[in-house]
Amino acid sequence: MADSGGVNRDHNRSFSQKLTFALIHACIVATCIWLAFGSIDWPNPMRARLLAFCAILYWARHCVTLFVLLKRHVAYSEVFGLSVFIAVFEIGFVLLGGGILANAPTQLGSLDGIAFAFVLLGSYLNTGSELQRWQWKKKLSSKGHCFNEGLFGYATHINYSGDSVLFAGWAMLAASMFAWGIPIFVTAGFLFFHVPALDAYLSKRYGVEFDEYAAKTAKLLPFIY
User: Cα–Cα–Cα angle for 31, 33, 38, nearest 5°?
Assistant: First the structure.
């Protein structure tokens, strides 16, 4: 078994696990939609609805990841553990953005436009980079080689960078200091756990080819880190 970064990287369709994950996530998104568009009189109804849209977008991207991009084994423990985490931030963001803890309405402004742009940019960096790699891997000439082109030419873990940008924008839209625990937690997980573990795995798998690529390319923040 090829474990790295807390997951089993052996190839396996894991269709039942992936379908279960997608359906649980769909229920979480449905809850967000009900909260945002239902009969609850929120102080910030438009903000709640915008956050529900972010949840819909995240679910759509998640389905692409599960059924198109992800080839490794997915365990039920991962499905249920991550489902709890997704429920916490997706439903939590809608509640916070809707104003469950607010004393007065928080109107949408120009900063929220920037925040939503971050959500879209982060979504593109993550899923866009993964799609580029997926297309490249279908070529026979790619077998046994490390992908370092496209968006991955700017950072070895540009997909993780995308998630950090996405969650930062999502937290900004929630307009609550309590929401910032999510992007901080996610980014710290990348920096101190996932990136080191995945670097070790990729170095072992691709050898000098990955080591030379990693030596001249940023890890998460293009041209900086």
Answer: 100
For residues 103 and 5, give the distance between their C-alpha atoms in angstroms, rounded to a whole number: 42
The model's pTM: 0.92
**CA 130, CA 69: separation in Å to the nearest integer?**
7
Structure tokens at 220: 């998460």
Residue pair 35/91 in contact by the 8 Å Cβ criterion: yes
- 99 near 37, Cβ under 8 Å? no
Alpha-carbon span 12 to 71, nearest angstrom: 6
Would you say 197 and 6 are in contact if contact means Cβ atoms under 8 Å apart?
Answer: yes
pLDDT in tens, 26-62: 999 999 999 999 999 999 999 999 999 999 999 999 9
Please choose, from the candidates 62, 72, 6, 77, the residue with its C-alpha nearest in 3D space to the C-alpha of residue 29: 62
Encode pLDDT of 66-106 as tens digits.
999 999 999 999 999 999 999 999 999 999 999 999 888 89
- Distances in Å between the Cα of 132 and the Cα atoms of 122, 126, 159, 206 are 15, 10, 11, 19
